[in-house]
Structures are given as C-alpha cells and as structure tokens.
Design goal:
alpha/beta; Rossmann fold; 5-stranded parallel sheet; 13% strand; binds adenosine-5'-diphosphate; binds magnesium ion
C-alpha cells in the first residue's frame, strides 16, 4: 500500500483517540507493517508543538487569548508537525494517522469562534501550501453525548469549557466539510456503543481502502 495521511476528526468525546486503534488494525489487515504506521496528534506531535498545545489549552486568567492568535498558534504547531514529522514519514512510505487536523480548525475557529473562512484558508496556504490528508474520518457525535464523555475523562481544558452552542456550530461546520469532500471522507455515527461505532468504522474504512 502506498503512503497515506489519514485524519480522524470530530468533537470532544467523539471517540477519535479510541478510533485510532481500530484504524490501525484495518491497515494491519491490509498488510501494512506496524513499524510503518505513525501516530500523530494535534495540536502537538513535535516537542515545540506540544509546548504550543499547552499554551493553547491553558485556561489562564491573566490574559485573553485572541481568536486570531489562537488560530495562528494552531497553524504554527501544525506547520512544525507537517514539515518535520508527517511529510518525512509519508516520503518514507508510512501510513500516518492523525488525531485532528485542519477540519478541526475550520470547525472550531471558523464555525465555533466565527473567524472568517478566508482568513483561515489564507493562513493555511502560508503555513502548509496545498498539503492535504488523503482521507478524513469524521466521528459524528451529538455534542451533548461527546461533552458528557469528555467530562468523564477528567478536568476540561480551555476549549472543552466552551458552551454547547459553540460545539453545535462546530459540528455543523464538520458536516459541511464532509459534504464538500465526499470522496475524501468517511462519516461514522459515533453516538452508539463502542462495539457499534467500531464495527461501522471498520466496515467503511475497509470499503474505502479497497478502492485506493
Ligand atoms: N462509543 C462510545 N461509547 C461510550 N464511551 C465511549 C465511546 N467512545 C469513546 N468512549 C469513551 O469516551 C471518552 C472519550 O473518548 P476519546 O476516544 O478520548 O474521545 P476524543 O479523543 O474524540 O475526545 C473515553 O473515556 C472513551 O473511553
Ligand atoms: Mg482524543
């Protein structure tokens, strides 16, 4: 199988991190060696990007993080990850599995916070030119269900603390992105049991990979 960049997207508690193991297992089924699979997460995945992750998630009370500053921090972290980790692994023939990528920016900073799409795409082109994943897996969870799961995981970070309407707008943006990219995306109903979600994901991913 040729190298691929597969991204798992979705709201808080959608089951993205949980889905990663299932995605991995399907690639193994298709004959990929475990050593040829690279996991990354955003924001993060390089030493510098992990430092930026902490800045982005920190709910500090001495200064407000301006929406556009937040957007740029995400893109600095993403650029470091793409250029220093993702692209070299793709050139080496690996399957790279990403936990979030640019759809999260469009959904959260665009749909959620209201930063105009044009600003986001301008910044994207400055940051990573036309670099794009080969496949997006959208774990579609009801925001109420997802936030409940995220709460069960522990204390909420600065973004997880946003109100429900923010996540409802973010979900709508994700759904638009899916609609605009039918050939590059899989949508999984992420509201069901772990087993139900896992089997839908596996069926759809197998089907996609048969045709690449
Ligand atoms: N389908 C599911 N049903 C019930 N709990 C789930 C399901 N998927 C994930 N979880 C649990 O919900 C929490 C959030 O899942 P996680 O994979 O961390 O979501 P994300 O990475 O999208 O925020 C975890 O504790 C996980 O075990
Ligand atoms: Mg996660």
């Amino acid at each position: 199988m040729k190298s691929m960049f597969v991204v798992i997207e979705g709201l808080e508690g959608a089951g993205k991190t949980t889905a990663r193991e299932q995605v991995k297992s399907i690639f193994l089924e298709f004959g990929v060696e475990p050593s040829d699979i690279k996991d990354v997460r955003e924001p993060g995945g390089t030493p510098l990007s992990e430092t930026l992750r902490n800045i982005i998630k920190d709910d500090r009370d001495d200064e407000t993080l301006v929406d556009v500053s937040e957007l740029m921090l995400f893109y600095v972290a993403r650029t470091q990850l793409v250029v220093n980790v993702i692209q070299p692994h793709l050139r080496a023939g690996c399957i790279v599995i990403g936990d979030r990528h640019d759809w999260s920016t469009i959904a959260y900073q665009g749909g959620g916070r209201g930063v105009p799409k044009e600003k986001i795409s301008l910044l994207k082109s400055i940051a990573i030119d036309d670099f794009e994943p080969d496949l997006y897996i959208f774990m579609d969870v009801d925001p109420v269900v997802g936030l409940e799961r995220a709460r069960g995981r522990g204390a909420l970070d600065r973004i997880e603390k946003m109100d429900l309407s923010f996540f409802i707008r973010a979900r709508e943006s994700f759904l638009e992105l899916v609609k605009e990219n039918p050939r590059k995306s899989i949508t999984v109903d992420a509201n069901g049991s772990l087993d139900a979600v896992s089997s839908e994901l596996k069926i759809k991913l197998r089907e996609f990979l048969k045709h690449v």
